[in-house]
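Lab channel / #folding
Pinned by the channel admin:
"Please post every new chain as: sequence first, then the structure tokens as a reply. Keep commentary short and put observations after the output so the thread stays searchable."

First post following the new format, from NK:
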Amino acid sequence: MSELVLSHQASPGALGANISAIFMNTSCLPAYVGNDGVAKEIGGAITNQTLTGNLSVAGTSTFNGRILPDYTDSATVGAVTVNKPSGRVNVANAATTLVVTNNFCTANSHVFVTAAANDTTGRVNAVVRAAGSFTIHCTAPSANMPVDFLVVGQ
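Reply from TO:
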């Protein structure tokens, strides 16, 4: 196991008894490092595991299933705080901007937005990110318009 292509490190025992890291080795086999510092292959798939802390992935990663970021569907119309990486917010009837306060957003984040309803006049035109928030700019909708968002990166 000379190269780690996906890894998660934690304090000793944080990932389970006697495990300090979980990774995929160069043969794409799940493996772990015990608290003794010795790498061991698991020999099967790692499923239904929750990792806390930072997870770094280097190189190409393939996901053979759904990616499910934490999500909130806000019923609030107008300016709102949603501290999750994805969600649904609502632009008010005739409004041209919506400020979403979001602690996942930085000035360098990529924020993807899309209208979640077919409005006769409302269109999402742009999103402007800032530290701790983003502003959705749109053509004024004829009714309250739901907008889905996804914040990626830092």
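NK: Residues 99 and 135 are 4 Å apart (CA to CA).
TO: also worth noting, The two ends are 31 Å apart (CA to CA).
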